[in-house]
Design a protein that fits this description.
Number of domains: 3
CATH topology of the largest domain: Clc chloride channel
Radius of gyration: 23 Å
Oligomer: single chain
Mean pLDDT: 83
Strand content: under 5%
Largest sheet: 4 strands, antiparallel
CATH superfamily of the largest domain: Clc chloride channel
Low-confidence stretches: 434-443
Distance between the termini: 42 Å
Shape: globular
CATH architecture of the largest domain: Orthogonal Bundle
Number of helices: 20
Number of strands: 4
Length: 521
């Protein structure tokens, strides 16, 4: 352990060499993540194609088919329960777990998590639950990053960077969106523009996307026709539209936690929790099959098909309720794609009202479907830049970046005015009670961790000797621009400084709050 810590200190002192090393390791993480997630995507697509065939076959059997369908639902429920029981880290999206690992709250057995997340995700989404592939893909990618670090004997500090890079590669490979993968790591996971994170993540996301391009081609995830650029005379509509979708996004967040609390308070045994959404999904397969699974195919039809406002509202409400039931049950699966689908449905409703009253021409209706996805993401996750870039790459709407940012910021402001919390941070906070015992078990694990000093953090303008550092920690290095400063007691810390601290896992969260949070003076 002492040798690895000294290796960390030596690596940080030669940052240029360390960046190149991370770049090379990031390529390796990207290759492994790209292969794993390509298999995951392929299996999900096969399951999506197989589902209507199974429904058709069951329908043709009559009464015996109903019995067979009930048996399938029960079997799937038990299998999903066994997977989550065997490895609790596979439950839900996976993104809060990665944030917990990077924050020092949790640890994971990377190989077991990766394998069970793939199996559980394919079964849950393939069975029709309204869950997405992106959260599992992020966790699978992060598991690959941890696996590369541990199998190659890298230090815990370097492995942390590779976990972040793998998470970005997972998002990039899931949606053919390399730039969104990079921005997601900077804006959501680390919340700082770290050169070290940037170097590893760019390498991993670009490589993982290249792998998926070889297997699936270079087409965007959503198959939209060419969308006309919104004229300046209609740009003003994006502000109320963003506020409208922002309110829908906050209703989504509240619904998630109501669902989670309801499952926790319910008398259902844990094995029976997946049974409720699976039974609902089984019934919907006969009447509203387009609401099942992630829903990316539904988004494609919103642009090319004709739906009445009544039908759009039915699809929205059904998708919303099925997503709440599916995610609340705790089975493997994310909320990224369902939230994008709900945003697209909200955009379709808004556009229908506009062009039916003559406010906009019908040819601009599809634009609101695209903008709705970005706005919904910005409201729910509170990462407007990631949402704008992600939707731009997923739809190939590169000429609409300005409009996407406007509507995303408008939705973000709506969420802020409603005191909305970022959904993944809130989910992590909710799970920390479970993680306290884990944190205590990890209290003696240490690594060199990178922090960036905020403009109004309590330590800005203080000398190193004046800062109350966590017990047993050590300030290893201070980077100010391209300068490597000697961290002696007389050094005055400034906003924007990157500091590298040898610290125990249990103290990472407190250090983050002390260094990075901004306070109103």
């Amino acid at each position: 352990m002492t040798k690895k810590i000294s290796d960390d200190v030596e690596a940080i002192s030669d940052e240029r060499s360390f960046r190149l090393h991370l770049f090379a390791e990031g390529i390796m993480v990207g290759i492994v993540s790209g292969i794993a997630i390509s298999f995951f995507r392929w299996a999900l697509e096969e399951a999506e194609d197989l589902r209507p065939i199974i429904y058709h076959h069951i329908s043709s059997l009559g009464a015996p088919g109903i019995v067979l369908h009930i048996a399938i639902v029960l079997t799937v429920a038990v299998v999903l329960w066994r997977i989550v029981s065997a490895e609790p880290m596979t439950s839900g999206s996976g993104i809060p777990q990665i944030k917990g690992i990077l924050g020092g709250h949790m640890r994971m057995h990377w190989l077991r998590v990766m394998l069970l997340k793939i199996i559980g995700g394919v079964i849950a989404i393939g069975a029709g639950l309204s869950l997405g592939r992106e959260g599992p893909s992020v966790q699978i990618g992060a598991s690959c990053g941890q696996g590369v670090g541990e199998t190659r004997g890298r230090t815990r500090t370097e492995t942390r960077f590779l976990i972040t890079a793998g998470a970005g590669a997972g998002l990039a490979a899931a949606f053919n969106a390399p730039l969104a993968g990079v921005i997601f790591c900077l804006e959501e996971l680390t919340k700082s523009f770290s050169p070290l994170v940037l170097m590893a993540t760019i390498a991993s996301t670009a490589t993982a996307t290249a792998v998926t391009h070889v297997i699936f081609g270079m087409a965007p995830v959503f198959h939209f026709p060419w969308l006309p650029v919104m004229p300046l005379s209609h740009i003003f509509l994006l502000l109320p539209f963003g506020l409208f979708v922002g309110v829908l996004g906050q209703a989504f967040n509240k619904g998630l936690f109501i669902s989670l609390d309801a499952y926790d308070k319910s008398p259902l045994r844990k094995w029976a929790r997946p049974l409720l959404p699976l039974a609902v999904a089984a019934a919907l397969g006969y009447v509203l099959p387009q609401t099942l699974g992630g829903g990316n195919r539904l988004v494609d039809t919103l642009v090319t098909g004709e739906f009445t406002i009544t039908m759009l509202l039915i699809l929205f409400i059904t998708k919303y309720l099925l997503t709440m039931m599916s995610f609340g049950s705790g089975v493997p699966g994310g909320i990224f794609l369902p939230m994008l689908v709900l945003g697209a449905l909200g955009g379709a409703v808004f556009a229908k009202l506009l062009y039916s009253t003559g406010i906009i021409p019908v040819e601009y209706a599809a634009n609101f479907v695209v903008f709705g996805m970005a706005a919904f993401f910005a409201s729910v996750v509170k990462s407007p830049v990631t949402g704008s870039i992600l939707v731009m790459e997923m739809t190939g709407s590169f000429q609409h970046l300005g409009a996407l940012i406007i509507v995303s910021m408008s939705a973000y402001l709506a969420a802020d005015m409603m005191n909305g919390l970022p959904v993944y941070d809130a989910l992590l906070e909710r799970s920390l009670g479970i993680a306290k015992k884990i944190r205590q078990a990890l209290s003696r694990h240490r690594a060199v961790v990178e922090f960036v000093i905020g403009e109004n953090s309590p330590i800005t303008g203080k000398k190193v000797s004046e800062v109350v550092w966590p017990r047993g920690s050590l300030l290893v290095s201070v980077k100010r621009g391209d300068d490597d400063l000697v961290p002696n007691g007389a050094l005055t810390l400034s906003a924007g400084d990157f500091i590298y601290v040898l610290i125990e896992d249990r103290d990472i969260e407190a250090m983050n709050k002390n260094v990075e949070e901004r306070y109103n003076e």
